[in-house]
Amino acid sequence: MIKLKKAIPKKEETSKLVEGRVLEIIHKIRKEGDHALKEYNILFDGCERESYQITQEEIQNALKEVKATTIEDLRFAAKNIEEFAKRQKEMFKHMEEQEVMQGVFLGHKAMPVNSCAGYVPGGRYPLPSSALMSIIPAKVAGVKRIVTCSPAVKDTKSIHPATLAAMHIAGANEIYAMGGSQAIGALAYGTEQIKPVDMIVGPGNQYVTEAKRQVSGVVGIDFLAGPSEVVVIADATADPRIIAADILAQSEHDPQARGILLCTDEKVGKDTIKEVENFLKDLPTAAIAKEAWENNGEVILIDTLEEAITLSNKLAPEHLEIQVENEEKVVPKLINYGSLFIGEGAAEVFGDYVAGTNHILPTMRTARFTGGVWVGTFIKVVTNQRVTKEGLKIIGPVASRLGALEGLYAHKLAADVRLK
């Protein structure tokens, strides 16, 4: 294994400052409610709203302001995301009571959470695609109350019109102009104007992520996500220009984003580095993408595809692209990734926007134990049991003995009174 392009080693950075600041913000939101929310809205976004909920008039104005082609594109993407979510939901079925042994009947129900919130980041550019990705699966799952929020455009009172249009198209019930860790606190604990929700999903900066960590347990969350990342596995048949473009598509997200190429062909690896440098000359987002590429990008020459597969499974990337001649031999061996893109035509950006799979995905190796947001994120499977007198005779004595074994004598009692 040879590194044709290395990442710069990172210094260990403490997160105590972020943790403490977020703790302070959430505490103040819990204590002061809307008053604190207004204070932080002004402090961080210059947004002086008295009512945080977006009105129907604001939504209609946004729809008029956004280009017709953009509305069409958002509806096209929304339709694909919804269709895939509907097909995913088909795997969730109620299991009616089944007699697993004489007199013991077990079953389960798959039911949606009652309420959820989709956090949509703001920042340098609008991210309407994230609104579609968090709201539509929840809607398909059957969530009754779907809330969403995003910070107002800096020094204004409103969310970016494209994001607002996407929230409306996706089917949100309530939309709020607020962002940052204060928004997460308001959604988790509620304020005078905002009822708390049962679950919060969606990406965000380090403050949003830390806030989700701190409120986890009070509400459900999807996962804690970090900077975006892509790993590409390639052989001699791969196109360096396509690989370079896909690496830069991740790199432009954030200076901390990572683009990694694992290739079995030295020429493909070196040509990819050249193509990245060529693209950066004219890329409008070159300032961010170049920093991410120079600091975090890697091109690793691998002896065999088997070695690439092993390393990829260890990295457990958010996005994983396969650009090799014999895809069918590689794909079954890949076990850790957020979303998989098979073949040259499957651009990761299609997953970001329009293919129908979700782009809210696990990062920082968490794909080892979780997948991304999907319709199942919003569905809980709950069990039920019914025991007849015949069943009681079979399982009652066993439960009584196990209760005594564990020193839980009220457990034993609960079994014994039924047996008598």
TrEMBL record:
Cellular component terms (Gene Ontology): cytosol
Biological processes, Gene Ontology terms: L-histidine biosynthetic process
Protein residues bound to substrate: 228, 250, 253, 319, 352, 406, 411
Chemical reaction(s) catalysed: L-histidinol + 2 NAD(+) + H2O = L-histidine + 2 NADH + 3 H(+)
CDD domains: Histidinol_dh
Family: Belongs to the histidinol dehydrogenase family.
Protein name: Histidinol dehydrogenase
Organism name: Marinisporobacter balticus
Higher taxonomy: Bacteria, Bacillati, Bacillota, Clostridia, Peptostreptococcales
